[in-house]
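Form 7-S
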Amino acid sequence: MACHLCTRHNIGWGMSLDETPTLPRAKRSHLTLAVALASVLAAVVLFDIYEDTAQQGEALWLTLLENSVPLALLVGFVAFSYWLYNSRERQYLALVLRWAVIGLIGIMFILLWAIGSQSYQETFKPVIMGVHTAIGGTVAGAGIGYVSARLHESRDEMATEKDRWESLFENDPAGVADLRYDDSELTIERANEEFCGLFVDGDESAEGQSLMAVVDHDDEAVEDAVSQAIGDRELYSTEVVSTVGESRLFFKLRVVPYGIGTNDRRAFAIYTDITELRQTQEQLEAQMEQLAESNDRLQQFAYIASHDLQEPLRMVSSYMSLLEDEYRDDLDDEAQEYIDFAANGAERMQDMVDELLAYSRVETEGREFTETDATAVLDETRQNLELRIEEADATVTAEELPTVEVDQNQLGQVFQNLVENAIDHVEEPTIHVGAEVHEEEVVFSVSDDGPGIPESQQERIFELFERGHRDGDGTGMGLAICDRILSRHGGDIWVESDDGTTFYFSLPR
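Output:
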């Protein structure tokens, strides 16, 4: 079984495998140029032999001896070019031809300069010509020596990089296999210790074996995708499940092609064991499902319990009212006080049940989030609380509030609960509502000038039925409902208390 998510990326190195047949053609062109250069130089030497023997009457053996070294060098140059053509990459032959031409031009320039200067002086100085040629050879040798030194330096750097790569390959915590792709078959050229420990039994070797024979990918589609990715020179990534012994392990598989520009199709297959991560994810998903089910049951319980409490409370209130109406004249002050206590308790219990119902309905009866003008919502809240504000002789002021994406009714509920909280706990309060817009969130504030809240109670006041230390009416559910609403919106609520009290709540932008 394989994970449905996988990725493939074209590496984009420019040359595809289908273009490799152009390489022999380029090599033939360089070989042709090398042979042509040698032929031209050989023709000059042969002409000199002909002129010495036919025109000047010198002995053939003497002129052949004179030119034997140049001819032998030309034969060696052609043989060397053929060897490079058959045994090395194109760039070897190209570099040799380039430096041969540069050397030829350099030496010819020095010779022509020496001959021209001596002709101008009407003298012939063979020793000076030899010295000039030797100077050219010295400079050429210095250049070749410098190139050779750079090659040695590059070779040392490559050896260092190879050692670093070998260390990384062998000590990689993931299982890594070096693959060769031939005739639709993925063959393991090398594998690190982690790969062998995961997929190879005992002292057996993975080298030379088919990847598909060593690793059970449990899905032919994955195996085909790996082969195609290597053939197309594309990065490939997916999750696979493999049976190792009696265990089923989860792996993150990444295929990384390399060797671009050569005839070989090579790639690294990297297997990262993510079994513990997947098991943890599955456990978290199961716990989340259990938590959701538990939350649903709790909400259902709160809703049903609240409904079931409604009727007994109505009966208590009704009978208390009947008792007071029917026997008011027959009861003394103490009995009347008891009836008042019972009626007030039933009324308070009714308020708590109503608040509990409102708390349970935050999730179940919440509306969709829409772009909402917070100023308009606050104005509506102030109208709904107009009578209470007047009775408490409260003053409510506000800044211009931003537009946010929320459940409009629930934002109004938050404003109402926070304003009512100040009215319930502060005499003649001055309440101010403000907001600050940040990059990722909007933070609203509702402040009053009442007594502060001790730091030890600043977290508890958001719990169910927690009223805090401030005097006043209320069920202790208003702040808990605010906390639940803001949790549904992905926000937060907190309080800061110093000179007065300020409630802050945040909403994502």
